[in-house]
Structures are given as C-alpha cells and as structure tokens.
Amino acid sequence: MAVDLVVPDVRIAPAEKVGHFRSAAAFEHFLSAYRAGMAGLPPVSELVDVPTSFGSVRVYRFDGPCDGPPVLLLPGRNASTPVWRGNLPGVLSGRTAYCIDLLGEAGLSVQNRPITGPDDQAQWLDEALAGLGLDVVHLMGVSIGGWTATNCAVRRPGRVASLTLLDPAMTFARIPVKTAVMSIGLFAPGVPEALRRYVLRWIAGGADADDSVPEAALIAAASSDFVLRSVMPAVFTDDQLRALDVPVLAFIAGRSVIHDAKRAAARARNLLSKGRIEFWADASHAINGEYPDEIAAASHRFWGDVA
C-alpha cells in the first residue's frame, strides 16, 4: 500500500457492550494477518478514520478512472478490507473505490457505542458516507456486507445510487439452522483451530482455508481474536424489499450455505422492482473470490446502465 497503515487505539476487552479484541496479544495476532492482507492490495491513495455517532470507521480510497460515482465495498462477517484482494483490480478498471472495515466487526474501525439494531447500522454507515463527502455512491457488499448495504438503502437511501450484492446474508432468506450451528465453530472461544478451519472451508465450498490464503488467515484470526457484540440482522420484510427504490444487482450463489439459494433468488425476483438477479449455480458463498473478473464485468455494465 502507498500510505502507512496507521493503527488506531482499538477496543481491547472493555466492559462496554461493543465489539472488541480479546486481549492485546489477540489484537497483535489479528494485526499481523491484516497487514499481510493489505500488502496484497493495490496502492492505497488515502486512509482516513471517519468519526460517526457509534465510533470511527476505517476507510481506504483506491483511485481509478473518474467514470461516474465511486463504489464503496463492504466486507462480510469476520472480514475486513483485505478480503477484496481479488476484486479491487477489476473494480478499479472503471471506478474509484472506497473500502471500509465494518463498525462492530474485526478490523481497524473502532466502535465506542452499542449498535442496537438496523436503524443504528444504517445511521453509522450514512454518517460515514457523509463524512467522506460522498453524496452519490454505489454500494457493493458481500455476505453481511450485502445486508449492511441493503439496510442503508432501506433506511437511509439518499446517497445510494445502486446496490451490488454478492450472496448477501439475511437479505432475501434466513440463515439455515445447520449453518447457524456450524458457525459456533467460528465464534466460540476455545474452539480448536482445526475445527475453525474446517468450518471456513465448508462455508467457502471446500476451498483452501490455511494461512497460505491471505483472506482465510484474516478471517480465521478475526474469528478467534475478536468478540462480536452486534445484534443479529433481521431478514427484510416483503414490504421493505418492494419499497426499495434503487437499482439492485444481486448475485446468488447456487452452492451457498448461508441461505436456501433458490428461495432467495425467487424472493428477490418477485419483490425487487429494480432488481437484476443472477443465479450462479456453481458458486459458493465465497463467490467474490471465485469469480472476481466476472463480477467486475457484470458490475461495470450495471453501473453504466444506472448512470
């Protein structure tokens, strides 16, 4: 990266009901994986910590051609900016991109106030966009990042030009019981590392999940080193999705374990008045890493049509 990685004073085992690292040693372990992941990204043009009512939001700007509104990328659970390693080159071929670490998740955003529900989630993201001076922006989110983007468009739509959703969790269908049970192997303290890696491979459709893959190392470190204190997102109602008045490009992964993929795609097609739904039968929930070039090409066509 072209700028120094400024490390903020993160939350470490506080009494408040906010996301935090388990210990100073846990943060150093996570930070090592984070630095390694950032080293694989294109050069960062600007790094800024944007103050919001719920804490500071870490944002990186990556400059691309000035072809219309920029794209802001939101990662999934236990992920952060480095998870976009495979996607940024394609996005930057046509747009400037901003990447954020979700507030309340493992990363270099620092939560200082409890996030109690979807209204709070929409407020901090809208405040971050305002702090960046982004009056119009395309939101791209994967997994929980897709839910976060949609939630902002549902509750604070004023700055949102469009949504690009990569197998979004809790957006068009609920998380299956089996997946919820398996996820305990990611979040519970004291879980053997071998089990944690097995769950990561299962979610990613069998892909390698060892430390040779920067994204896997990052997510594994986050799941062991960070304590989540966010309320579980609620699936959007039919009325909320029908009322969504921004263009939506949704990629649904046929082998996803995060929802019933066919049901999610059908519900999105039925309810989104401005939706384009692409069902990719061979993709897993790790769709952003499996098909970065194809996603970038389809997204650029979509953003061009929105303009």
Brief summary:
The protein has 307 residues and is an alpha/beta fold. The protein has helices spanning 24-38, 88-92, 118-131, 144-155, 177-187, 193-203, 214-225, 238-242, 261-271, 287-290, 292-306, and strands at 20-21, 46-52, 55-62, 71-74, 97-100, 110-111, 137-142, 160-166, 226-227, 248-253, 275-280.
How would you sum up this structure, described in words?
The protein is an alpha/beta fold and 307 residues long. The protein has one domain: 3-Layer(aba) Sandwich (Rossmann fold). The protein is built from 11 helices and 11 strands. Strands 2, 3, 4, 5, 6, 7, 8, 10 and 11 form a 9-stranded mixed β-sheet that branches. Strands 1-9 form a two-stranded antiparallel sheet. Helix 4 links the parallel strand 7 (137-142) and strand 8. Helix 5 packs antiparallel against helix 6 (193-203). The two termini are 30 Å apart. The mean pLDDT is 92.
